[in-house]
Specification:
Glutamine Phosphoribosylpyrophosphate, subunit 1, domain 1; globular; alpha+beta; five-stranded antiparallel sheet; about 650 residues; about 40% helix; eight-stranded antiparallel sheet; 20 strands; 25 helices
Length: about 650
């Protein structure tokens, strides 16, 4: 894993030592740069595989080279694809990516389509003076770009683009509303004006004359053996020359992924989160799972004071505001993995999306059959493992049925499109309270994106539509982004999951039995695939709480004082997107309320994260790695001629 930044069509340049600190957390082992008249590349590397090769920016300068590569990711089918290229002399996937872009133009897209893994790529063709930027299908690795002084600037980090532009973050209201309603920005957008994201599953081609060509790739929907792919993936994702561990939540996804990789990894360290607030804690399940799996388990307990101590630093790395606080404990969990010298972590991400674990898939079915009251009521009653205290089970199910009836009438079009309408409705208070004059333009922009990317989308059933929307929003923009890559790479940790495979998107769910089975509860296909494991450890697969962190600590005196200090500092620093008076009224209302409405708590969470991100990104010197830390890097490679400069430095204090 790595981090990189660059400047193309150079009308300005930046000192290597000034930009690298904004990327160093992503790759502390090696740093380097390439420069010529048209392009600069700046790279940081986290060594995982073939530790002696793969120095970046990568080139084969001694040959008739065409380009230079900075790459962030991991290609799991490297050894299969390596056989197709004659010139690969190492076991480093960086060399494979380089050879792919050394091919003829028409072969590049096909070869990228063959890659299994996670990646963000920047490749500069020295002869043609063309820049390529590409991302993996699911958007596991981030990549952003912008225009500045008639140049194209790009990076793994938004903060380094703000540094290059020498400007404060300026929020895009429509993308804030998209985060509020869909829990993600548009796939080609960020929360900031004039800073864009490379779309997942795409290649952008930049020309010196200003022309930009974008190509997308799509995977077909078909039937196949998902268990076979999971077993294959578990072997591929354990290829590493560094220690491998797991995040163990106590649920089915992480349990199965740990059991799968245990066939290839002998000594496994597992890491789990617990909460001082017992309402959110599942430590007992994690310890039981660790004992059954035989892992060496480490626990991180998240307390109220951890929120106050880590919100701003986590926000600096997150860069994108969120409707939840789950990224903060994940930041601490990756810090623990780093302290235990475990730079590769296996997770269970993607299982809920690919094997339909979320309630939204069942809600979709309920809404479409809402008039069959007796038939759908049993599904409603089985969905919720926790209920509001003032509802008995029967009253609550009736209340939810009425809610779904109203939602079908109110949001019929979005339901048919596959959008999680309960989540959308949850954001209505924030929208109406703080942006009453703003229309939902982001919805139409998102619909156009989906229909362009998935040409057969209108022909899919509602289950598949909903799955695609969840993958493109919650998974790609939130769980793999803010909560995943951003928090793990903040501490130089690479995460992998056997469930994050493009082939699993090909599962063709046709009927409700594929979604829900009362004998197996949710994710029946996953459990049927591992039925022996399920029967042996049935209690492990009991329904668990969705991963979340408490919000109520914002409403005690310490929390309110903490929030006000950040908010007041921001308003003195050109912050204007959120109304201060309305914010204070919301805090007062929630403080006094006996029952705190979830929509208002979510609004306060988003407001807090917006302020925290803005504060962190306007006080970057407080959080960025000190430039003095670069003194421990010693030059290990250099090349210079009339066409370019290339220098690479290694951290002598890193013990692999």
């Amino acid at each position: 894993m790595c981090g990189f930044a660059g400047i193309y069509k150079k009308n300005f340049d930046v000192d290597f030592k000034s930009i690298i600190p904004y990327l160093l957390h992503r790759g502390p082992d090696e740093i380097g740069y390439f420069k010529n008249d048209e392009c600069s590349l700046f790279s940081t590397r986290l060594k995982i595989r073939d530790l002696n090769n793969g120095k970046q920016p990568f080139t084969k300068y001694e040959s008739n080279n065409q380009g230079f590569l900075s790459y962030n990711g991991e290609i799991y089918n490297f050894f299969e694809l390596k056989k197709k290229f004659k010139n690969i002399n190492s076991d480093c996937d960086t060399e494979l990516i380089y050879e792919i872009f050394e091919q003829k133009e028409e072969d590049i897209l096909k070869s990228i389509n063959d890659l299994q893994g996670q990646f963000a790529i920047s490749y500069f063709n020295l002869k043609k003076k063309i820049l390529y930027l590409a991302r993996d299908k699911l958007g596991e690795k981030p990549l952003y770009w912008s225009r500045h002084k008639n140049s194209i600037i790009f990076s793994s980090e938004i903060k380094s683009l703000l540094f290059l532009k020498n400007q404060k973050p300026e929020f895009d209201t429509q993308q804030i509303l998209s985060i509020n309603h869909l829990w993600s920005t548009h796939p080609s957008k960020t929360p900031y004006k004039n800073i864009h994201s490379i779309e997942p599953g795409s290649i952008y081609k930049f020309h010196m004359d200003g022309k930009i060509i974008k190509k997308l790739y799509e995977y077909p929907i078909s039937n196949f053996n998902s268990k076979f792919y999971l077993n294959q993936n578990s072997k591929k994702i354990t290829i590493s020359d560094r220690n491998i561990g797991v995040y163990l939540s106590g649920g089915i996804d992480s349990f199965i992924s740990t059991k799968l990789i245990s066939k290839n990894v002998k000594k496994i360290k597992s890491f789990g989160l617990s909460f001082a607030n017992r309402q959110f804690d599942e430590k007992a399940k994690q310890l039981k799972a660790a004992k059954l799996l035989g892992t060496d388990h480490y626990n991180v307990t998240f307390k109220d004071e951890d929120f106050f101590e880590n919100l701003l630093s986590a926000s600096f790395f997150a860069e994108v505001p969120n409707t939840r606080f789950a990224h903060i404990p994940m930041y601490l969990l990756s810090k623990k993995a780093k302290s235990e010298k475990t730079p590769v972590i296996i997770t269970g991400e993607g299982a809920d999306e690919f094997f339909l674990g979320y309630d939204v898939f069942l809600e979709n079915f309920i809404i479409n059959n809402i008039n069959k009251t007796k038939f759908v009521k049993k599904y409603v009653e089985s969905m919720f493992v926790y209920m509001p205290q003032n509802f008995s089970k029967g009253k609550f199910s009736n209340y939810k049925l009425e809610t779904y009836k109203n939602l079908k009438i109110k949001l019929r079009e979005m339901s048919a499109f596959g959008i999680n309408i309960s989540r959308f409705q949850m954001g209505e208070f924030f929208h109406n309270q703080f942006f009453p004059d703003q229309k939902n333009y982001f919805i139409n922009h998102f619909k156009n994106y989906i229909k362009r990317k998935y040409s057969k989308f209108n022909h899919y059933n509602n289950i598949k539509k909903t799955q695609i929307i969840e993958i493109e929003t919650l998974l790609s923009g939130n769980l793999l982004g803010v909560q995943g890559d951003k928090m793990s790479m903040a501490n130089g940790i690479e995460t992998r999951s056997p469930y994050l495979d493009k082939n699993l998107l090909s599962i063709n769910y046709k009927k409700i039995d594929d979604i829900y089975d009362f004998r197996l509860k949710q994710k029946p296909l996953l459990k049927k695939n591992f039925l022996k494991t399920y029967k042996k450890y049935p209690k492990i697969f009991n329904q668990k709480f969705p991963f979340r962190a408490p919000e109520n600590f914002l409403l005690n005196k310490k929390g309110k004082d903490f929030f006000n200090s950040i908010m007041n500092a921001n308003f003195k620093n050109d912050f204007s997107i959120i109304n201060k008076t309305k914010t204070n009224l919301l805090i007062d209302e929630l403080t006094k309320a006996k029952f705190r409405q979830p929509s208002k708590l979510q609004a306060l969470t988003l407001l807090t994260n917006i302020h925290a991100v803005y504060y962190a990104l306007t006080h970057m010197k407080n959080y960025v790695t000190s430039a003095s830390s670069l003194k421990k890097y010693k030059r290990v490679f250099s090349a210079k001629n009339k066409k370019f400069q290339l220098k690479i430095f290694a951290n002598e204090n890193i013990s692999i």
